[in-house]
Design brief:
The protein is of the alpha/beta class. Helices cover 41% and strands 18% of the residues. It contains 14 helices and nine strands. The protein has a nine-stranded mixed beta sheet, sandwiched between helices. Strand 2, helix 2 and strand 3 form a beta-alpha-beta unit. It binds beta-D-ribofuranose. Beta-D-ribofuranose (BDR) binds next to helix 1, helix 7 and helix 13.
């Protein structure tokens, strides 16, 4: 079985990704580490437990990690994900925070990787604060990972948070910088533009949400607000280039569990702008090799949409 650690800021699309990981037959989720991001850390923790409850998998350990970025000012994405991060639909049966594992997320991440050297795939769909702190505490972590999958950054300076910055990188640019410098394991990045270009048709999304299973009903409930926003003409024009359903975190997760999902990628050294007035947090691609970085990342370009749809459908249908 593929061993995964999910580093999340649950958020609607993180929730989709967690559901997909839990439904995959050949995958073991060792633990879920939580980070500030789409919503404050406390909400991230509650939301993650809600997703696990909906999937019937409260046995998976959930850990609390960094509640703020390394240097940047805290920011969240409540406009899109809702103030609570999951579409602002009250859930009277939500599990309480006493369900959390006591260990700190960064320490737990280091421990899980050390106990499974060469076997763990880390999927990061949040600002990269937990990963940055982990490598500062234990510089050998990247060498022990099998692979790192990130949802974050951008390739054409098309932002969703600042003019040219993507949320996860903008929310903690220093952490993104540290991770791209120091994680020398095979690294795969699902950028904002990649997820927009490969978004799925709304007609298909309607079919997905019409599946009548407890999991699909949960996903339907939490996705109402963000889907309404994403379907609005303004958002489509300004933010997603007029495409469809874009559950960006799910691309990173799906790629991590299915090696044949990504049909085209580009290998290039990447870093992050830390200073620009307009460009802080923007991912920088070094096509000419001027930065003399040995380590290159795989930047995802195209996805097998039929496979992705099938993975989504299965994650809603499976027990
Ligand atoms: C990323 O930011 C968040 O809003 C999403 O959950 C995703 O991780 C997209 O920029």
């Amino acid at each position: 079985k593929k061993k995964l650690i999910l580093d999340v800021d649950t958020g609607v699309d993180d929730a989709h990704a967690i559901m997909m990981a839990l439904a995959a037959p050949d995958v073991e989720v060792l633990g879920i580490t939580c980070c500030h991001g789409n919503t404050p850390l406390d909400n991230v923790l509650k939301n993650t437990l809600r997703v696990l409850q909906a999937a019937g998998r409260l046995d998976i350990p959930v850990y609390a990690g960094c509640e703020k970025p390394l240097l940047a000012r805290k920011q969240h994405a409540g406009d899109y994900h809702g103030k609570d991060g999951l579409g602002d639909v009250p859930d009277p049966n939500a599990p309480g925070l006493e369900m959390l594992h006591k260990k700190n997320a960064v320490k737990a991440m280091i421990k899980m990787i050390n106990e499974n050297p060469g076997e763990v795939t880390l999927v990061a769909t949040a600002p990269l604060t937990n990963l940055a702190v982990a490598v500062q505490l234990n510089p050998k972590i990247p060498k022990k990972l099998k692979a790192l999958y990130i949802m974050g950054g951008n390739t054409e300076s098309r932002g969703n948070t600042t003019t040219c910055g993507e949320f996860n990188f903008v929310a903690d640019p220093e952490a993104a910088y540290i991770v791209l410098e120091r994680y020398t394991c095979p690294t795969y990045i699902a950028t904002w533009e990649f997820s927009c270009r490969n978004s799925l048709p709304w007609s298909w999304c309607d079919e997905l949400l019409a599946i009548n299973t407890p999991k699909a009903n949960f996903v339907k409930t939490i996705s109402c607000l963000s889907n309404k926003k994403a379907r609005s003409a303004d958002y489509q024009k300004e933010v997603t280039e007029g495409k469809g359903f874009n559950s960006c975190d799910t691309y990173a997760l799906a790629a991590a569990i299915n090696d044949t999902l990504i049909t085209k990628s580009e290998e290039v050294a990447v870093t992050v702008e830390l200073e620009g007035t307009f460009t802080r947090g923007m991912m920088v691609l070094d096509y000419m090799g001027l930065l003399k970085k040995k380590h290159k990342a795989f930047i995802m370009k195209e996805v097998d949409q039929e496979k992705l749809k099938e993975m989504f459908m299965n994650s809603m249908k499976s027990k």
